[in-house]
């Protein structure tokens, strides 16, 4: 039974209940650290007793399901390091370094495809990084050819084939080439259009670069164009970010991701180049978030949840209205129920009832494949309880509500009784107006949507006691 979500509303809708108005003190009280729930259980629960054998068994089991496939390819190379970055990447200007990596990717594809029924359609493809457009046009063609040879790519108009692009590394010829390769969705990294901010994060990117690519993408008919922005970067203020947003609204992307910058210099070396004193205060960050939601919703964007916004006619907004939105390692996705196979260094697969992760260390990844085996270094097989909780957390993160009657029916349980502890943990949030329970429906209020990660944590049976040290802050 599908759980139908209402179209997302802004915390500033005049029709919203009184307790849903912007309440800075309340938001600051709940602005703790917590998972982003791109998976449940989160990657912190993956363990090294799970290896190649367990992953290949899961691939084989998944063939019984007849589910479509989603392929994620990690391209770790960048020409230049952005100081805010927390991704798994290798900085180099030498595209020849990608050649041995592409050979290893092909070997990984061959080893994976042996265990998969490759007549299953590949509905979704995503190249992330690093900067996938680091690759030369010939290398991109080569990689697509290998993926097609091993898995059989789709030409269906419904396919969702996306690539992350650094506008400093691409031009109109790149876009035309990507279109001929079958990509129909692109995501452009912008972060901020303010020159002072750009200089402080080592990413000088004049607006004209982004604008030229967007104009060409629209002209070529790319179905959906996403822009990435980050708030909380050095020298950002509420006024400077409002100026960036105004320019972005003029550029009119179909989707926007506005990420919260998590400053963790102890974990990510490039961030040590950012001066702590230049970062906006917690109060300023909240003002930036407030302005972002206000301006984007007034410009007609639907606040999907957390950091994602989409135009009402975009597939993300449509999927949310129809209750078919899903979360995966790339964030919100309109292609539900695919088995996700991750290829490349650090990539994570979600297949059947398991998660499997490749090493984050390139040498270790290469070593495994050179020995003729898949590079899985850790993972997890989900218990029945994990599967039920994953479903509930995913529906909450995607629909901003949980229909316990539908959950009871799907899993053959008495859901309100099964989650009695979680509901007890949410009593404070209910008192504070973050959630409302009406019969079998638990709904996040407009302000609760901003704290959806906090609400989801109530259903998490794996949450570590030191969550504050292990995860980024919610807002």
Secondary-structure map with pairings?
Elements: H1 24-30, H2 52-62, E1 69-75, E2 77-78, E3 90-91, H3 98-113, E4 122-129, H4 137-151, E5 160-165, H5 172-180, E6 185-191, H6 195-200, H7 207-220, E7 224-231, H8 238-251, E8 255-260, H9 282-298, E9 302-305, E10 308-310, H10 315-322, E11 326-328, E12 331-333, E13 339-343, E14 348-351, E15 354-357, H11 362-370, E16 378-381, H12 384-399, E17 401-403, H13 404-411, H14 415-418, H15 420-425, H16 427-431, E18 435-438, E19 441-444, H17 446-450, H18 452-457, H19 467-470
Parallel strand pairs: 1-4, 1-13, 2-3, 4-5, 5-6, 6-7, 7-8
Antiparallel strand pairs: 8-10, 9-10, 11-12, 14-15, 15-16, 17-19, 18-19
Please supply descriptive tags for the structure shown above.
9-stranded mixed sheet, 475 residues, single chain, alpha/beta, 3-stranded antiparallel sheet
Structural description of this entry:
The chain is an alpha/beta fold. 38% of the residues lie in helices and 18% in strands. It is built from 19 helices and 19 strands. It has helices at residues 24-30, 52-62, 98-113, 137-151, 172-180, 195-200, 207-220, 238-251, 282-298, 315-322, 362-370, 384-399, 404-411, 415-418, 420-425, 427-431, 446-450, 452-457, 467-470, and strands at 69-75, 77-78, 90-91, 122-129, 160-165, 185-191, 224-231, 255-260, 302-305, 308-310, 326-328, 331-333, 339-343, 348-351, 354-357, 378-381, 401-403, 435-438, 441-444. The strands form 5 sheets. Strands 9-10-8-7-6-5-4-1-13 form a 9-stranded mixed beta sheet, sandwiched between helices. Strands 14-15-16 form a 3-stranded antiparallel beta sheet. Helix 8 (238-251) links the parallel strand 7 and strand 8 (255-260). Helix 3 (98-113) runs parallel beside helix 4 (137-151), helix 5 (172-180) runs parallel beside helix 7 (207-220) and helix 8 packs parallel to helix 9. Mean pLDDT is 92; it is low at 1-20.
